[in-house]
Design brief:
It is built from 4 helices and 7 strands. It is an alpha+beta fold. It has a 7-stranded mixed sheet with strand order 2-1-7-3-4-5-6. The model has no long low-confidence stretch (mean pLDDT 91). Keywords: Ribonucleoprotein, Ribosomal protein, RNA-binding, rRNA-binding. Belongs to the universal ribosomal protein uL24 family. This is Large ribosomal subunit protein uL24. It holds the Pfam family Ribosomal_L26.
Length: 122
């Protein structure tokens, strides 16, 4: 016998937030800018610290900056310059979901990233 698929929203949310880290890695993907799509020969790539991105949705729409932190557990990304001022005057970085970002420039300092891009293009 096989497990019956449940489309119940609460169960889908549970699977999403309780997913193991290797599955959350694929959720951290974002679209590539059209200029990069032709070079890399891929539509999307997982986000990494150091990538330059453009925010496409929300309060910081059209803001461009470098990724300073990637929170795999919460499925959120922190972009340089996307900062909110709290009531007491302190500034904190605003967490952004990867689906609301577009990759403008890829950080290619790591050879593992080049291998991943090569596999994606095949």
């Amino acid at each position: 016998m096989f497990k019956k698929y449940s489309g119940k929203p609460s169960k889908q949310r549970k699977r999403h937030f309780n997913a193991p880290l290797h599955k959350k890695h694929s959720l951290m993907s974002s679209h590539l800018a059209t200029s990069l799509r032709n070079k890399v020969d891929a539509r999307s790539l997982p986000l990494r610290k150091g990538d330059k991105v453009r925010i496409m949705r929300g309060d910081f729409k059209d803001h461009e900056g470098e990724i300073t932190k990637v929170d795999l557990k919460a499925i959120k990304v922190y972009v340089d310059g996307a900062v909110v001022e709290k009531a007491d005057g302190t500034k904190i970085e605003y967490p952004i979901h990867p689906s609301n970002l577009e990759i403008i420039d890829i950080d290619r300092k790591d050879e593992m990233r080049d291998k991943a891009i090569g596999r994606k293009g095949e």
